Amino acid sequence: MGGMTKPKRPLGLGAYILVLVGVGLVGGLAGGLQGLISDHAGPYGVAATIALMAVTLAVALAACIWWWRGIDEAAREAHKWAWWWGGSGGMAVGALVLLSLAANEDASSAAAMDLSAAELLLGGMWIILLFQLAGYAVAWAAWWLKHR
């Protein structure tokens, strides 16, 4: 007898929350370890930081792959569409904000705020990321509203 197998049920909100919490905990642990590593200057400190970040990113990627393989095709399409249109649009808006700030040298410049080059770089990265995530969230919601 060729037994019929029960179709695999797609992962739901619980799995999504599990991935978010799990990756958040791994990131928190990595941040704590980075605090210990930051006391070691020079090439060993840099190598340890790179290794720690690589392991942390590998864990996050593995969790995302597990989650991606467990969701259904409609959810995959919603995420791909939202990331392409929403993430790209958000990145463009964030770039406009950063370019506008860079072109407008006034009293609120980096020197007046006493910011280092690293702080400026990280600030710019955060601005782009937040605009991408906001665009993604809007596009994701729009996709589901359109396809319901």
SSE layout and pairing:
Elements: H1 13-37, H2 43-70, H3 73-103, H4 117-146
Helix pairs in contact: 1-2, 3-4
Give a summary of the structure in a few sentences.
The chain is mostly helical and 148 residues long. It has helices spanning 13-37, 43-70, 73-103, 117-146.
Structure description:
It is built from four helices and no strands. The chain is mostly helical and 148 residues long. Helix 3 (73-103) runs antiparallel to helix 4 (117-146). The longest helix is centred in the middle third of the chain and has 31 residues, at 73-103. The protein is flat. The model has no long low-confidence stretch (mean pLDDT 87).
Give the SSE order as H and E letters: HHHH
Helix fraction, binned, reads: over 70%
Q: How much β-strand is present in the residues?
A: under 5%
Catalogue the unreliable spans: none
Biggest sheet statistics: none
